[in-house]
User: What shape does this take?
Amino acid sequence: MSRRPSPAEGAMSAWTTRRWLRVGVSVTLSVLTVLGALGIWAMWRTSQLTNEIIDRRTPALIASIRLEEALVNQETGIRGYGLSGSEDFLAPYRQGVADERSALRKLKPLLKGDAGGLKDLADVQALAGTWHERIARPVSTAAPSDVVDAAEKRTTEGKATFDRLRTAMTRQQAHLQDRRTEVSRELRAAMTVRNWMFTGIAVVIVLVTVLIFEGLRRGITAPLTRLGSSARDVAQGRFDRSLDGAGPADLRRLAADVDLMRRRLVAELQSSEESRRLLDEQAADLKRSNTELEQFAYVASHDLQEPLRKVSSFTQLLQRRYGGQLDERADQYIDFAVDGANRMQILINDLLAFSRVGRVHNDHRTVDLQSVLDSALGNLSVAIEESGTEITSDPLPTIAGDTTQLTMLWQNLLSNAIKFRSPERTPRIHISAAVVDDVWQFAVSDNGIGIAPEFQQKVFILFQRLHTKDAYPGTGIGLAMCKKIVEFHDGTITIDPDHQPGTRVVFTLPVATKGPTVPEGETQP
Assistant: This one.
């Protein structure tokens, strides 16, 4: 039986990564602040005790020792002067007096705030004053002839007084040494506390670092790693793999959102698979239908050729033999029949050529477009000469394509430009070529009558005519065939709406790349 989580555990399970990090950082900073404050206090205390030893206790002890040496030098000088009467012994005495004053000037400030030390110093000064007044001063001021008698009278008193003074100085130095030893002990204790504090800080930092890394690993890195592994499995096609979340609440929500996305992708994939299956079926049906239609158009146009030739031949024969022998209406009917048969034959030939694009002519080779253009110009030489059209061209590249289809492309575009010339100006046609966005862009520009903007897309539709057959002959298949040829070569074709006057037909063809193309004149295996 599983344990039910406590209210506190339930509340913590709702914590996000940001909240966990905020709480963790706050606790860590609090602990480090407390330890840092204790460490700073320990350093301050150590520094304070060190300064007290160096700047106060040790100098005070040294000054007390120098005070004792000064008094001993004075006592030695007085005793030697009293025994010998030689004034040379007064020199150590006078130097000792000066050293005593110097030692007292240094010692008094160092004992400030130390009641016991000031009391010891007062005792020493009192005994030293008594010794000076009773012994040292009378002896030092006596004449050399009288000093021996004066010294002998004060020998016992002087010895007793100076012994008391020496005892007081010894006591003072012992107290100063005890205080210095006590401060040193406190310093060692403070240094121990400081070292333990810094050791504790280091240990806490290490523990916090370990806890942070472990917390990040368990709470963030490991859940994200598992989530990433599951996501990669899903990306590789294992859509049945559920994405279970762990760690903080926001990571669990993220896992739930990703899993929801996975379920939606599975549903969409199933739907798209069904749609793709239906599209494949429809595409197969459409391809079969197009194939049948192309085959039908080819067969129909091919099979219509023979009876149409008979109709055309006999109507022309009827026109030649009986033309002018019947009435005017009969001649008109015969002309209508001949014209209809001829136009029907042209239409069937155009339909037959249109159905063959991409089906019969499908031999991709390395094609020199300049040679192809020259061939198309040769085919149109009569129309060019009769219309007086001036045709110029940029240097044309070599591409991969079908020579027959590309010849038909140039021929249809140029014949349209010649056919729809303006009677008000000399017909001029220019063919340009340039590489734009890694494809060849060609343009056939003329100064003819142009195409109205509303018809610039319709002209590429099969059997679309903008003029009557009496004004401009044709079947309306030319530009539709151009569009089919260009798209068969993976290109696009449009009318430039900004070109004035006339029309500019712009089409693209791929740049020739290394591939399975066959140089013109060779046979493709």
About this structure: Confidence is low (pLDDT under 50) at residues 514-525. The chain has twelve helices and eight strands.
